[in-house]
Every structure is written in structure tokens, then in C-alpha cells.
């Protein structure tokens, strides 16, 4: 009986694995690094613009009704 339980557990774990993986985007590790670096640079640029008072549309929309 115990062997059957192990087999069922293996099948359940295998069925859950693809949903938990989620990183199969078809990119090589180098491409993934480049993509992530670009995203971080863009995020840093947005934060810098916001810190200098650029704010953008998000800041203007937040403060529009607070007068």
C-alpha cells in the first residue's frame, strides 16, 4: 500500500511542477541578464526623474484632487 502512495505523490508533484516553474520564456541566461539589466536601468531612470520633481503622469494624477 505504501508503494502506491509514493507513486501517487510523484504523479501529483509532477503535475504541479509546470505551473510552479514559470521561467520557460525561451531565453538563454545571457539574454535574460540583458533583459533584466535593461529593465533595472529603466526603473532607475524613472525613479531618478520622479526624485527630481518630474513626477510624470502618475504623480499629477495622485495630487490632482487634493487642492
General description of the model:
The model has no long low-confidence stretch (mean pLDDT 79). The protein has a domain at 25-49. The chain is built from 3 helices and no strands. 76% of the residues lie in helices and 0% in strands. It is mostly helical and 67 residues long. Residues 1-12, 21-45 have a biased composition (Basic and acidic residues). Belongs to the SERF family.
Keywords:
single chain, 67 residues, mainly alpha, 3 helices, elongated, SERF-like_N, Small EDRK-rich factor-like N-terminal domain-containing protein, SERF1/2-like
Topology:
Elements: H1 2-21, H2 29-51, H3 56-63
Radius of gyration: 23 Å
Can you give the helix content as a percent range? over 70%
Residue runs with pLDDT of under 50 for 5 or more positions: none
> Secondary-structure element sequence?
HHH
Biggest sheet record: none
Query: Structural class per helix/strand content?
Result: mainly alpha
The dominant shape is elongated
The total count of strands amounts to: 0
Distance between the termini: 71 Å
Mean pLDDT: 79
Region (Disordered): 1-67
InterPro entries: SERF-like_N, SERF1/2-like
Biased composition (Basic and acidic residues): 1-12, 21-45
Domain Small EDRK-rich factor-like N-terminal: 1-33
